[in-house]
Design goal:
- It is built from 7 helices and 15 strands.
- By secondary structure, it is an alpha+beta fold.
- It has 2 domains: about 130 residues, Probable inorganic polyphosphate/atp-NAD kinase, domain 1 (Rossmann fold, 3-Layer(aba) Sandwich), CATH 3.40.50.10330; about 160 residues, Tumour Suppressor Smad4 (Sandwich), CATH 2.60.200.
- A hairpin with a 2-residue loop joins strand 9 and strand 10.
- It is globular, with a radius of gyration of 19 Å.
Amino acid sequence: MKHVFIINPNTVKKARAKLVSGVEAACGKAGVDWEIYYTDAPRAAEKRVRELAETGAPLRFYACGGDGTIAEAANGAFGFPNAEIAAIPGGTGNDFVRNFAPAEAFSDVTRQINGRAAAFDLIKANDRFAVNTINIGFDCAVVDLVERRRGFPLMNGANAYTIAAFVKMIPMPKCELKLEWDGRSEQNRLTLCSIANGRYCGGGFKSNPTALLNDGFVDVFRAHAKVGRLGFLRLVGDYRKGTHLDNPKMADRLDCFKTKEMTISADSPFMYCSDGEVMTAGELKISVVPEALRFVIPEGAELTSV
């Protein structure tokens, strides 16, 4: 098996040097065939993964970055049983790997090389795949601000999401959406809506606490328009811990359900965020693709269930 490490050259120079040094040492010691591929454009990683996967050779791709890098690799590897995806965290949020423990195992290249691939679900949204979460409304506006202010003082790591969240509360974004699922149809005015495979978003907020990567469903969480600035401030602690759905005072403002497929539409194009990539659409056709992602769990780590 060949081990291919996908690295964004815009990664902080010191962190990139440390990563490359660790890759060289671990691969040399393990005696494996390996290479480093530096991305040079949006979705370049996806293209490279697909090109190599088409050879039919057994491959393990290491997405060295955040959820967006993992998603690029997953989109490139989809449909190729010879391709596995691993993740070495280096992005802003790193939320997908929070579904596993211990977290430090993902930064250990040796444990990654010795890891095992397991099958997990993907979310299909129109013609692309998400590994973790699709966000609409407030959460998407926060991600959009983080991306547009990347490189500004304090706008790095999980802190960036917290700062952007407080900025975006003035004014609080709302969205008018039509949701159709399981024979139901509802017109909603929402503060936010998330469609999740994993439990975390925004750098550690446990937005969808009942989501599982391998249950064959997506979890849909809605915060209705009644959740304004004051309500969000009261909710933010519970939202981070994943206990917001247990708050009786929010029972008429929050809900969550599981489904295998749904359609989200609006009268005009709306902004949505798929694993950190902000896009627009007039309609999203969403479905779960069971066991479509062959993801590497590092040696000594495991999927957590709560």
